[in-house]
Write a structure and sequence with these properties.
The protein is of the alpha/beta class and about 200 residues long. Helices cover about 40% and strands about 20% of the residues. The relative contact order is 0.13.
Length: about 200
């Protein structure tokens, strides 16, 4: 992990094999940066992709990686939201449309993203620890239009990929209270022909 030179503040996540160590480090460093300040929004956009069925020799390694990239980060973000969000604030999590059903060829990925969906719904439940009136919402994209995805899938239909600018504008609108879904919502990002629809998952 490396600092973002354009950010006002950085908390550099230390790589570790123990979740409690990483979570404790991030929690302490964020508290040191924020002090008593409360936030309008916490946007968890961490994640990644790795394939593999249950017969894959890389099943254990890839499942571990997916859990760290999606579940560790989302769990840490939820605790930061409980500590540092303003009442009525916004927490976003990164799910995946694929994890609404079975993911035979990418078991670890689907398992981790399904756990993120469950976490999002749990944060909307009574006694979740979220600040009063705060909302947890997960986005469920299919494919994001990122430089890395373009590099590894140069012949894909980019018009079916969700642009990052669209997601940034969506997060801003939700943070400002415009068309914000109810807490616990899983919002599919369905892109076709360069146009993206935001549709609640059942």
């Amino acid at each position: 992990m490396a600092p973002n030179e354009e950010a006002n503040e950085n908390v550099v996540v230390q790589t570790t094999e123990a979740f409690s160590d990483q979570a404790g480090q991030v929690t302490a460093d964020v508290a040191r940066v924020l002090g008593a300040e409360k936030l309008d929004a916490i946007l968890c956009v961490a994640g990644g992709w790795a394939g593999g069925s249950c017969s894959s020799k890389d099943l254990y390694k890839n499942s571990d990686l997916m859990w760290k990239q999606s579940v560790w980060t989302s769990t840490i973000s939820s605790h930061l939201a409980a500590l540092h969000l303003k009442p009525g604030g916004l927490l976003t999590l990164a799910g995946a449309k694929a994890a609404l059903s079975g993911t035979g060829g990418m078991v670890g990925y689907g398992m981790a993203k399904a756990a993120v969906h469950q976490l999002c719904r749990s944060l909307a439940a009574q006694s979740s620890g979220m600040p009063a009136g705060a909302a947890a919402v997960a986005i469920l994209p299919v494919t994001l239009d990122t430089p890395m995805n373009r590099k590894f899938m140069p012949d894909a239909d980019f018009g079916s990929w969700t642009p990052l600018d669209f997601i940034a504008a969506l997060f801003l609108a939700w943070a400002e209270g415009s068309n914000r879904p109810a807490s616990g919502s899983l919002m599919q990002l369905l892109t076709s022909g360069g146009e993206t629809q935001v549709v609640a998952a059942p």
